[in-house]
């Protein structure tokens, strides 16, 4: 809205924002140059000490300029995360010459606006080539599209910080020959989406994916007696509400996704936990090479022999090789009651000695072991100590 008394000040703000954008772009191209140098001289991408020093100095400068240390820290966490992920993507591309496609055909759950759609956009924004989105109705359809070369990649949600592991995706991994080639985490911010000017008190029917209902159970309890309609994706819930054009229905989904369907968010932060994130995996027919300079993760699946302590014995192999396990999930084996398949994520590169040794040792003591993929880790834990230290110095 135009407010003549604010015009002059707003013009100045616009100019500052434009300068900020140019400065961010300048920083981005400098960090790209850093990546080139790291490739040439085999230097690891992440340098946490450099990040700490940089943050301590920025927090001090910020304080002198009247900026809150937490504000400065938050800003630079975002900037540094972007810089590290960008450098990792550059190194990963160099390590896989010929893998860059002019068109990446990506299969995911739902349609435009689903969380998987947003994660797909985010992952491929750092990679060359256009994206052709292939929305699917089920996880098995997604996997089958890549298996039959109707898609090049699939983006699949594997776990959520509120509702836990997505079992159906784990079960798909048990049977497929596809490889995990990447991962990403994406914040899941559920909002109540309506068409027109519906108020919360008018809502009788709520459309959402079952996972979403689980993640927002406290909000649902507060809402009282509404009919809950489960949909096979967030985007189909949003589509249903936009097509119904009624003032007593609402969908739960992301605000950004809702906009694509002309829906308005009338309440945000509906998840039980404030920090609600999903981790997605990216799968393809061919495995990728992960350069040793990039933090890597490896996922494998195994079943142990039927004897007491077999799992402990297997985990000890990881300990003996100083391999850090980041996730352990068990799933039943169809047709073999009471037997379990264990899915294990570890930090480490399959082409590195200790992990190779551990996998070789595990093959000897397990009944079955299959590596599902080695891929760059995108969990960039932010450097935390800087703010506290800068404040006490
Ligand atoms: C840019 C670099 O790479 C990474 C990103 C950093 C940044 O964005 O400032 C700092 C340290 C590294 O973790 C670098 O090493 O200088």
TrEMBL record:
Residues 299-376 form the ACT domain. GO terms for molecular function: prephenate dehydratase activity. The keyword Cytoplasm applies. The keyword Lyase applies. Residues 1-91 form the Chorismate mutase domain. Catalyzes the Claisen rearrangement of chorismate to prephenate and the decarboxylation/dehydration of prephenate to phenylpyruvate. NCBIfam families: CM_P_1 (TIGR01797), PRK11898.1 (NF008865). PANTHER family: PREPHENATE DEHYDRATASE P PROTEIN, PREPHENATE DEHYDRATASE-RELATED. This is Bifunctional chorismate mutase/prephenate dehydratase. It comes from Alteromonas aquimaris.
